[in-house]
């Protein structure tokens, strides 16, 4: 099911965390996979890597053309690379933080869409990594959350523009995921907070996010475009675990005024 045999995929930010889990999943499904990353690192067997900063348009264009030249096709692009500045209140916003966040997280996705679409001659799949913080307001996530909201919007506009060319564009909104970006923060208070608030009562494993990217990259997702798919343990459905709600205030199943 969801075979990616004979497909060629490029995954930005595939050197770590969610991106790496997507790379492994695509390889297992039979795709040829190239990681586009500022720091590709040790890649899983079968994947190749190109060092590129996604905020550099010429670099993204050259990397995607290289992928195309090597296999004669480009079927799938995952725009996943991002930086994640969190815990930054409005008082702490600076031009350099804002410019860098938007350059990587927003411009990088736009450049990926622009240059991949030109190479997807037989149609294709573009899947972007947004975040629940691009849909819900989170304190301290003004610049990061806004960059992710922009990815949701880029996804919808690109889905409209590219539909006539047989290219679908979707985005995934993960909840909090156990990746290095989250786990390397000492005593990260986000972890117990999110465990408490997430309806499923725990954080995600990267593989659970990668599963959605697998479906959206496959031929089976042929009628899905412009979708904003939460993979968040239920956060977007409602922001509390059942065992944290107030006790019943209704006696015997009926309301007495
Ligand atoms: N971890 C979470 O809880 C979480 C939740 C929601 C959304 N996300 C999103 O998922 C994606 C992956 O997050 P992660 O936690 O796996 O991150 P990560 O930090 O583990 O990996 C990010 C990868 O992107 C690469 N990268 C960063 N800047 C780059 C640039 N300018 N050019 C090229 N590559 C660059 C890094 O080298 C790294 O390999 C991001 O888009 C992030 O915003 C993460």
Secondary-structure element order, as H and E? EHEEHEHEHEHHHE
User: What is the CATH C-level name?
Assistant: Alpha Beta
- Segments where pLDDT lies below 50 for 5+ residues? none
Task: Please give the count of helices.
Answer: 7
How would you sum up this structure, described in words?
The relative contact order is 0.14. The longest helix is centred in the middle third of the chain and has 25 residues, at 95-119. With 257 residues, the protein is α/β, with parallel strands linked by helices. β5, α4 and β6 form a beta-alpha-beta unit. It has a single domain (8-244), classed as 3-Layer(aba) Sandwich (Rossmann fold). A seven-stranded parallel sheet has the order 3-2-1-4-5-6-7, sandwiched between helices. α3 (95-119) runs parallel beside α4 (142-162). It has helices at 17-28, 57-71, 95-119, 142-162, 180-183, 190-197, 206-217; strands at 8-12, 32-37, 48-51, 76-79, 124-129, 167-174, 228-231. The model has no long low-confidence stretch (mean pLDDT 95). 38% of the residues lie in helices and 14% in strands. Residues 12-13, 15-19, 37-39, 53-55, 80-84, 104, 129, 131, 174, 176-177, 179-182 line the site of nicotinamide-adenine-dinucleotide.
């Amino acid at each position: 099911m969801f075979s990616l045999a004979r497909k060629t995929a490029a995954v930005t930010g595939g050197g770590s965390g969610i991106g790496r889990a997507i790379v492994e999943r695509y390889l297992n499904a039979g795709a040829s996979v190239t990681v586009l990353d500022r720091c590709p690192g040790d890649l899983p067997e079968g994947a190749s890597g190109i060092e590129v900063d996604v905020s550099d348009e010429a670099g993204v264009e050259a990397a995607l053309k290289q992928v195309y030249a090597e296999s004669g096709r480009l079927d799938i692009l995952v725009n996943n690379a991002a930086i994640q500045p969190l815990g930054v209140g409005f008082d702490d916003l600076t031009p350099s933080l804002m410019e860098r966040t938007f350059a990587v997280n927003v411009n990088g996705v736009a450049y990926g869409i622009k240059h991949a679409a030109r190479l997807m001659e037989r149609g294709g799949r573009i899947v972007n990594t947004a975040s629940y913080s691009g849909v819900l307001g989170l304190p301290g996530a003004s610049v990061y959350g806004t960059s992710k909201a922009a990815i949701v919007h880029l996804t919808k506009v690109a889905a409209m523009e590219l539909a006539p060319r047989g290219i679908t564009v979707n985005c995934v909104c993960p909840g909090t995921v156990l990746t290095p970006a989250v786990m390397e923060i000492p005593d990260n208070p986000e972890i117990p907070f999110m465990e408490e608030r997430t309806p499923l009562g725990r954080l995600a494993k990267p593989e659970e996010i990668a599963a959605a990217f697998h479906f959206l990259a496959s031929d089976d997702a042929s009628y899905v475009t412009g979708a904003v798919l939460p993979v968040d343990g239920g956060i977007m459905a409602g922001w509390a675990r059942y065992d944290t709600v107030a006790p019943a205030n209704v006696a015997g199943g009926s309301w007495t005024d």
